[in-house]
Specification:
BirA Bifunctional Protein, domain 2; five-stranded mixed beta sheet; binds adenosine-5'-triphosphate; Herpes Virus-1; about 450 residues
């Protein structure tokens, strides 16, 4: 079984991330703040690389796809039209004993070990299940619940400086609406013909009440979303195409296909015709990594209705007017980061009982493409010269402290694909030793060809 072989656990990942500058608990010196995390010097590079790889695949290399960067704060009518104001909510229950708050659906899923699907239940049915099966509070172990209350996940804020001018607005709970409200702007300015796509990478906010599992579920996160606008009738084949594209992206990032699976939604949202997730085998078990949804013409139709502005596309050849269908592909950058780290984490047994901790990251995702390591202090000038040259092409780190073995290990732990050692021969013939992170093999290369060699090996 794939699960049994893996060295990774959530505790090990959290610890590695904290000690190696990848991810720190949010507001840590004030005791932290639940479900928030800060990316450190190594983590910010990795996450930027994840976003870059996604953008490259789904915008740059994707014919007829265009990017936008819409405002986080949007006119409140957007959320009325999208249905978020009335129905973006979770069924919550409070434990009267320890005052902790839980999602009823999560309690049922955990209690039934995934054999019961709460998505198919009404609130009354969920309450009845919890009563019948005596589902206790996972924090204090007692059984003393309030009834279910629905809880809107959108964060509210207000604009204006005086009370009179206060006007309730929301932090966006998803980036998708920024693409929908700009459908006409993008189509007109690019003269794109349907089918075409609009993509966005940006922050979204949800007042999640369930425990986060590190960066799996946070209250502030980044989404990478791609909406494909197509004609009704072609939607199902594009839905299948995006399922394949989403899967291939993960495989190309280095995911083992045994750790991925499709999961069709049992209960479709009112606007959806087809919907599935790709689940990943996270350290805590199989969970959603990304979603692919056939949203029909629901969103554009609603925005046309609420804004009074047309969302109809006019076919330039036939003159036909219609509101396109939308295939949505949505993945969290932070959730993908957690999956990438889980997949890359390894503890390798070496000779003499030694263990090497290593992140087998795709080189394009690694924070630093190479580490420059002078063997001795008096080689610093040459090492600095090589380091400064490489920095102009990609992020490179420099480490002159400690034994060379320890320095290799530090780089292995953060997944740096190449270590470049500068020795006395470098002064003579301008060659360096290049050590490969995965095989640990070393080759000798001319310093002048180094940048080209690394660039080629770290491409996505
Ligand atoms: P979940 O069932 O896990 O709450 P969802 O079905 O509500 O997720 P979507 O609304 O489809 O998720 O969002 C698309 C993607 O955004 C998810 O597949 C996930 O990768 C990411 N995502 C959603 N909520 C969060 C969150 N609270 N923290 C981090 N990533 C998130």
């Amino acid at each position: 079984m794939a699960e049994e072989k893996r060295a990774v656990t959530m505790d090990k990942l959290v610890n590695l991330c904290k000690t190696r500058g990848i991810i720190f608990p949010g507001s840590e010196i004030y005791g932290g703040m639940g479900n928030t995390w800060d990316y450190g010097p190594v983590g910010v590079e990795m996450k930027n690389n994840i976003k870059r790889a996604w953008w490259k695949r789904f915008v740059q290399e994707s014919e007829n796809s265009y990017g936008v960067d819409a405002a986080i704060l949007m006119n409140s009518k957007v959320w009325e039209a999208s249905g978020h104001t009335s129905s973006f909510s979770d069924p919550k229950m409070d434990c009267r004993e320890c005052k902790s708050r839980h999602r009823a659906d999560n309690l049922i899923e955990a209690h039934s070990k995934g054999t019961v699907n709460p998505d198919l239940m009404t609130n009354e049915e969920m309450e009845a299940y919890i009563q019948e099966h005596h589902v206790c509070c996972p924090i204090c172990g007692k059984f003393n619940w309030t009834g279910i209350r629905t809880f809107n996940l959108m964060f509210e804020t207000s604009r204006g400086v005086t009370d009179e001018s206060q006007n309730k607005i929301y932090l966006r709970p998803e980036t998708a609406q920024g693409e929908f409200v700009n459908f006409m702007n993008v189509q007109r300015t690019t003269r794109a013909k349907v089918p075409f796509g609009i993509a966005q990478v940006g922050k979204a906010f949800r007042n999640e009440i369930t425990p986060g599992n590190f960066i799996f579920r946070t209250i502030e996160f980044e989404q990478m979303e791609h909406q494909w606008f197509c004609k009704e009738g072609t939607d199902s084949s594009y839905y299948n195409e995006f399922k394949e594209k989403a899967w291939k992206f993960l495989v190309d990032l280095g995911f083992n296909e045994e750790h991925l699976r499709f999961k069709d939604h049992d209960k479709l949202a009112h606007y959806a015709k087809q919907a599935c997730d790709i689940q990943y085998l996270f350290p805590m078990g199989w969970s959603e990594l990304n979603g692919i949804h056939n949203r029909t013409d629901y969103d554009l139709t609603r925005h046309q209705e609420y804004s009074g502005k047309t969302m109809q596309y006019v076919d330039p050849v036939t003159g036909e007017r219609y509101i396109p269908y939308v295939i949505e592909y949505s993945i969290g950058a932070d959730r993908l980061m957690l999956a990438v780290l889980s997949e890359a984490y390894d503890e390798e047994a070496l000779e003499e009982g030694d263990v090497r901790n290593v992140l087998h990251l795709h080189p394009a995702i690694a924070a630093y493409k190479a580490a420059v390591l002078p063997l001795q202090k008096n080689l610093a000038d040459k090492a600095q010269e090589i380091y400064k040259k490489l920095c102009k092409r990609f992020p490179v780190t420099y480490d002159a402290a400690g034994s060379i073995g320890k320095r290799y290990r530090r780089q292995d732990e953060i997944g740096t694909p190449f270590c470049i050692t500068i020795d006395f021969d470098t002064l003579e013939d301008n060659t360096v030793t290049v050590r490969d992170r995965d095989s640990m093999e070393q080759i000798r290369l001319g310093a002048d060809g180094l940048a080209e060699y690394i660039a080629k090996k770290t491409e996505f």
